[in-house]
Amino acid sequence: FLRRKSPSPSSPRRRRSPSRSKIHYKRKRSPSVTGSPVAKSSPHLGSTENKNAVDKQRLEEEKKRRQKEVELRLLEEETTKRVEQAIRKQVEDSLNSEEIKHEIQRRIDEGRKRIHEEVVAQIEKEKVSALVEAQQRAVREREKKEREELEKKLEEERKKAEEAQMKVAMEQQQKELERYQELERLQKEREEAMKQKQMEEQQQKQNQIKLLGKNKSRPKLSFSFGMK
């Protein structure tokens, strides 16, 4: 049966494009072919179809590449699994053989004998080291006690020295604070005195201005009375 093609994305553009007769008719009427919008639209349609074909081919190639990667990965996993199974079976077969069992038992017996000998030697060694350790512990405890007593004395002397230094520093700080407060008080008194002096001078100036103003106004009044 005939398969009906689905409309491509560029089909609406083909329906909008003019027919050959119309293009031919327009070419006869227009002296310039390059100025026609129809001449410009044809290459655009061709490039769109080429681009769609390239994209489709690229998607197909990408799909094939991914499928090949999946197949290779599955093949690699299957090969690794088979190799591991073969190695495991070979090891199990070797361990189940009589020769290997005898070798394992021989090594176990030798290990037990060696461990027993090492334990006996270790016990004798620990007895000697315990005696030496007891003696050394007594010496260490005595030295520790003497060191602690010496450190205690040094700590007490250090605390006394720090307290004396702290006392001197506090006294010096108190003196500096009192000196600073005295300087600050003197500075405030000086500023207050200067401020008071400026206010008095300003008041005197204002009084002089008022006095001068009264003196200037009185002669004018007397003169006006004389004219009458």
UniProtKB/TrEMBL annotation:
Residues 1-30 have a biased composition (Basic residues). Residues 1-68, 139-172, 189-228 are annotated as: Disordered. Residues 52-68, 139-165, 189-203 have a biased composition (Basic and acidic residues). InterPro entries: ARGLU1. One of its GO terms (cellular component) is nucleoplasm. GO terms for molecular function: cadherin binding. This is Arginine and glutamate-rich protein 1. It comes from Aegilops tauschii subsp. strangulata.
